[in-house]
Design goal:
- The complex is a heterodimer of chains A (about 550) and B (about 200).
- Chain A has one domain.
- Chain A is built from 20 helices and four strands.
- In chain A, helix 4 runs antiparallel to helix 6 and helix 6 packs antiparallel against helix 9.
- The longest helix of chain A is centred in the middle third of the chain and has 34 residues.
- The relative contact order of chain B is 0.18.
- The two termini of chain B are about 20 Å apart.
- Chain B has about 200 residues and is an alpha+beta fold.
- Chain B is about 15% helix and about 20% strand.
- In chain B, a hairpin with a 5-residue loop joins strand 8 and strand 9.
- Chain B has a five-stranded mixed beta sheet with strand order 9-8-7-11-10. In chain B, strands 1-2 form a two-stranded antiparallel sheet. A two-stranded antiparallel ribbon of chain B has the order 3-4.
- Classes of the chains: A mainly alpha (about 550), B alpha+beta (about 200).
- Chains A and B meet through helix 6 of A and helix 1, helix 2 and strand 5 of B.
- The complex binds iron/sulfur cluster (2 copies).
- One iron/sulfur cluster binds next to helix 1 of chain B.
């Protein structure tokens, strides 16, 4: 037994814990430490679950391929896009994936440059998101082409004046840059796997050997690695910002009401950062559960990430306000129909969902664990979720029934019932808060899920409705041709791409340790920083489990 | 002339009404052949281009079908062949030309091209020639003369000055090359003129 004692800056002992030093046997007999074993287990042991995930993903992926084959055969006529709405789900997915990809490299670069030590267990899973999402993000516009076989024209006849060329350049640069950024800190782990995982299939041993590039952990190698990682961390920052800026410029460089906006660059960057950080939180939660990484991904990581997501969420909310409030106040003729459709029209439910459920509710959820006052709500005896929820539901059903079946002169009753139902729902939500507060990790995960969902819907709302409201229609709007209804081909390709993303990400975590082994090894002691004392009196801090 | 595939309206006629207090009027919209054409500016491969005679054309053999130009055109003048366009023998028998966009092909963008094949022979474009009212005038700005289907020829500069001509969505800075003359009387069956 080794007793590990960690101290904070002032030298106080923050925690003590014992690390079991039993050696694990990698199947062929090379010894792995407890630490190495914990992190390499998913790489070494592909259980039945692994194959199940891969099978599901590839089934959906193959369906996506079939959908694309149909589109290749018949042309884009099999999609819901027409002359009026000439971009649809593919471009929505494109912006979504690029947004998700945004934060991985950016996050680990910023944390690296600021020397935040808690980053080590999560940087790799963040960077891998960047890599996988970029692959599928970059694929999307290609699937959207009417003449994919002429893709080489972009190089032979490419015009640098076109925003599409800016996108191609920045996305390929970002893909290369973030791959290097992902790869560099992987080298020592690759060498570890080369040396110790003797029992994995031959092609993987070959892979590790080649990729490890003769790493011997010599001091000068470490120095060079450190140097290149710092260089990449600086380089990747402006590239990442530019990528999403030029993605937004695809829209902002046109004269369309709704896209013709000067703040699209930062607006998209903010949205990308929020959705990207949220997806890192989701990845942390999934890997923690799936690979039993509780000792590495601690409530501290969720707390820090939640703070980051909260800030980015609020920044994005601010940009939404800046974008819509200024347009809505003026109600300029060109934008009026578009804004009305978003605020009160056909797409109003989606719009308000993105704003309220997708941004405001997550902000509240993320703030919850820090609101000390809430603990007092627990002491109110009647503030119990189950009776309140049931009561609210009964009232709501009663209100619905009353409005449907009661004669019109009794409609007052229905109104009262409705308000009672709304009040019940409000109390129900209130009664849930203390319970959620006791589970900060769950709060962070739910909030992040909502933000990611919001991100996709928001991209849709940015792309499609604007095309539905041009200055002049290319078709008779009265005939409904101007509306857009995605077809099974588009949904199939979308599902296929999402499955592909999951599969690439999952496979990555099964081929390489998703938590850096060597980086967490040296600094194992720093993970156990307890939640600050200020929180200690709330029940929240006492039970920081999911 | 161009054997335009069904679903495309290279020149589209809108029935516009500015307010309920005024009568509706017809508003024909061809491609405006903008002098600062957003469609050309954004094309990633240079398939959309502007000729020195002012006409904006699309090279259907270069176009990759990204439809960025459609997103960029404020006049919605561009149409895409979403599927294989129905072909006729007449159409297929002609050699491909950017000036006619014939034979039509799938997966590329098409639009009104001001009929360069006709104007080269000294004729006015098909839309102008087909208008029984003579509402559409066509001509060369440098010759300062425009002609309609009835054979009436006017000085362009005079017509623009005296007729209070305007260009659609001029304020966007696209410099369209199509001018519209406001209705001279406000009776419902008055016909509108536009010239290019
Ligand atoms: S009207 Fe549209 S298609 Fe025609 S030149 Fe102008 S922007 Fe291009
Ligand atoms: S659809 Fe064709 S013409 Fe239009 S921007 Fe793309 S490549 Fe150029």
């Amino acid at each position: 037994m080794i007793l590990m004692v960690s101290k904070d800056k002032k030298g106080r002992v923050m925690s003590t814990r014992a690390v079991n030093n039993t050696m694990h046997q990698a199947s062929a007999g090379t010894a792995l430490s407890e630490h190495e074993y914990a992190l390499l287990k998913p790489v070494m042991e592909w259980g039945r679950g692994t194959y199940l995930v891969l099978a599901i993903c590839s089934t959906v992926g193959i369906f996506g391929l079939y959908a694309y084959a149909t589109q290749l055969r018949e042309g884009l006529v099999v999609t819901g896009m027409r002359d009026q709405v000439s971009w649809g789900l593919y471009i929505t997915n494109f912006v979504f994936f690029i947004g998700i990809s945004h934060v991985g490299a950016l996050l680990s670069s910023i944390l690296r440059l600021t020397g935040a030590k808690w980053r080590y267990p999560i940087t790799r899973m963040a960077e891998a998101i960047t890599f996988a999402a970029l692959l599928f993000g970059a694929l999307m516009p290609l699937l959207d082409l009417g003449r994919p076989e002429r893709i080489a024209n972009l190089i032979s006849h490419g015009r640098l004046q076109s925003p599409i060329l800016w996108d191609i350049l920045s996305i390929t640069t970002y893909l290369v840059g973030s791959s290097i950024f992902l790869y560099l800190p992987l080298i020592p782990d690759l060498a570890l796997m080369r040396d110790k995982l003797v029992n994995v299939p031959g092609w993987r041993r070959w892979l590790y050997r080649v990729l490890a590039m003769g790493w011997k952990a010599r001091p000068e190698q470490h120095e060079r690695l450190e140097h290149s990682m710092n260089t990449m961390a600086v380089l990747i920052l402006p590239i990442a910002i530019m990528v999403h800026t030029v993605v937004s410029w695809i829209f902002a460089m046109t004269l369309r009401p709704g896209w013709n906006s000067t703040i699209f660059g930062p607006y998209f960057v903010a949205g990308a950062l929020a959705s990207g950080a949220a997806s890192v939180v989701l990845a942390m939660a999934v890997f923690r559960r799936m690979y039993h990484l509780e000792t590495y991904i601690t409530p501290l990581h969720f707390r820090n990430m939640a703070a980051l997501v909260l800030v980015l969420d609020l920044v994005y909310l601010y940009f939404n306000l800046a974008e819509y409030a200024t347009a809505a106040y003026k109600m300029e003729l060109g934008e009026r129909a578009l804004l009305m459709e978003l605020f009160t029209g056909r797409l109003a439910p989606v719009f308000w969902f993105t704003q309220v459920v997708g941004l405001i509710v997550p902000a509240i959820l993320l703030m919850l664990p820090s609101i000390g006052m809430l603990a007092r709500a627990r002491t109110v005896p009647w503030l119990r979720p189950i009776p309140l929820g049931a009561g609210g539901a009964v009232l709501a059903v009663a209100a619905l029934g009353a409005s449907r079946f009661l004669p019109a002169q009794n409609s007052n009753i229905a109104t009262y019932l409705l308000w009672a139902g709304i009040a019940g729902a409000g109390l129900f939500a209130l009664s849930l808060l203390p319970r959620l507060q006791a589970r900060p990790v769950a709060c962070a995960v739910i909030a992040s899920g909502l933000i990611v969902l919001q991100a996709w819907l928001k991209r849709y709302i940015i792309v499609v409705p604007v095309l539905q409201h041009p200055y002049l229609s290319s078709h008779e709007p009265a005939l409904g041709i101007g509306l857009y209804q995605p077809t099974w081909v588009e949904w199939g390709i979308t599902a296929g791409a999402m499955a592909g993303f999951v599969m690439v990400y999952f496979l990555f975590s099964r081929l390489f340790p998703i938590v850096s082994v060597w980086e967490t090894e040296q600094r194992e002691s720093i993970q156990e920083i307890p939640v600050p004392v200020r929180h200690a009196h709330t029940p929240a801090a006492a039970s920081p489990e999911v | 002339m161009h054997l335009v595939p069904p679903g495309q309206e290279w020149i589209k006629i809108y029935n516009l009404e500015h307010s309920s207090a005024t009568s509706a009027y017809f508003f024909p919209r061809p491609c405006m052949q903008c002098d600062n054409p957003p469609c050309v500016n954004v094309c990633p491969v240079g398939a959309s281009y502007k000729r020195s005679d002012g006409i904006v054309l699309i090279d259907q053999e270069l176009c990759i079908g990204c439809r960025f130009c459609m997103a960029a055109c404020p006049y919605s003048a561009r149409y895409f062949n979403w599927g294989e366009p129905p072909h006729t023998e007449l159409e297929l028998s002609q050699p491909y030309s950017v000036e006619t966009n014939i034979p039509h092909r799938r997966g590329v963008v098409e639009k009104c091209v001001f009929c360069p094949a006709l104007t080269r022979q000294g004729q006015i474009p098909a839309c102008g020639a087909a208008c029984p009212q003579g509402a559409i005038y066509f001509g060369d700005e440098h010759e300062d003369a425009v002609t309609n289907s009835l054979g009436e020829t006017y000085r362009l500069s005079e017509m623009l000055d005296s007729g209070a001509a305007h260009r659609h969505l001029e304020e966007l800075g696209t410099e369209p090359r199509v001018w519209y003359l406001p209705p001279r009387t406000l009776s419902a069956n008055d016909s509108d003129g536009f010239q290019g």
